[in-house]
Design brief:
Blueprint (H helix, E strand, L loop, with lengths): L1 E7 L7 H4 L8 H7 L6 E10 L5 E8 L4 H6 L2 H18 L4 E3 L11 H6 L4 E2 L2 H18 L8 E5 L4 H10 L5 E5 L3 H14 L4 E5 L2 H5 L4 E4 L18 E4 L10 H4 L4 E4 L2 E3 L17 E3 H12 L13 H13 L3 E2 L2 E3 L2 E3 L1 H16 L1 H7 L3
Parallel strand pairs: 1-3, 1-4, 4-5, 6-7, 6-9, 7-8, 9-10, 10-11
Antiparallel strand pairs: 2-3, 12-13, 12-14, 15-16
Helix pairs in contact: 6-7, 6-11, 6-12, 13-14
Amino acid sequence: MRRFAFVVHPLRFDDFARKYRFTRYLPQGLVETGFKAVGPVMVGHATGVKSITGEELEGWLIGLPLTPKILLESPYEWVLKKLEQAGHMAEKMGAEILGLGAFTKIAGDRGVSLAQRLSIPVTTGNSYTTATAVEGTLRGADRMGIDLATAQVTVIGATGAIGEATSYILAPHVKYLRLVARTLEPLQDLAKRLSEQNPDLSITVSQDVSQSVRDSDIVVAVSSAQDAIVEPEDLKPGSVITDVARPRNISSRVSQARPDVLVLDGGVIEVPGEQADMGFDFGFPPKMVEACMAETMILALSGRLENFTIGGHIAVEKVREIDALGQQRSERMAGFRRFERAIDEDEVELIRQRAKKAMEHPRDLVSHRFL
């Protein structure tokens, strides 16, 4: 039996109320500050995971009651001590590897210092997140009839770890690539490196998210922004948007206001085992987890007990390797999901038809879309 642990935390203030109901009656700032004094807690026990090659797996979900704001704005040494406490809890439970979820993998040096303080390896899960984001994006583009040879493809958060790796993997498949981030110099450096490896690639950079997505046929959103940065009025009819970020980069308003675009949840994975139970409500159907957690599980099942994905850079070779390991263990993408809801081929076709109508009657789109 292999064992893993995974660190989770509330992505939004409302998430506190899922475990601590009294917090819904208190001011947000008071709750966030008060819970800084609370250490890690066990919030779930994953059981019944079994790969097609026979390996069995159990794991523990360890919660840190810290919002993204607290994780990003607090001194990293303080955050690191909290993560270290979670890591030692995992060690005592018998976990062989620790995965970092959501903003715990963004804070500080992305797992490097934590790995040095623990006796078990650490991974952020970003390699498998990248692999499944690209896979889902390309599948979505194919379903929507988008021609990669003419499509404008945009990566939001391109200079982050996942954004950079996503750009490298997408580059050989597309002709027009736009990189978007807050700081210009790293964008220009990334564009130069991509152009050297892909001389036929037409590449541009931008610091303006809204303007960048207006003519984009394909968008991969991986920014670490704490709030939504893409609104319904920004999107092109018929486009495919893969939202990898948590909290989401894509406004929840898109779900209702833009039935003519295909928004995909990045990296939702179905884990193997008929009796698999994650022991925690992620907001997904049973046996479904985020790709970052799935990477931790794949490494444990494969006996790859190593610091697989840490630091601010993701090697493309690691992305391909973890993807292959996932296929060997029968972890796979859980079909298309849109705002945590499964969608089938009929719904995708309906989105295509709405997009076609929107493009044929653009005035109607402007007049009625955002009412």
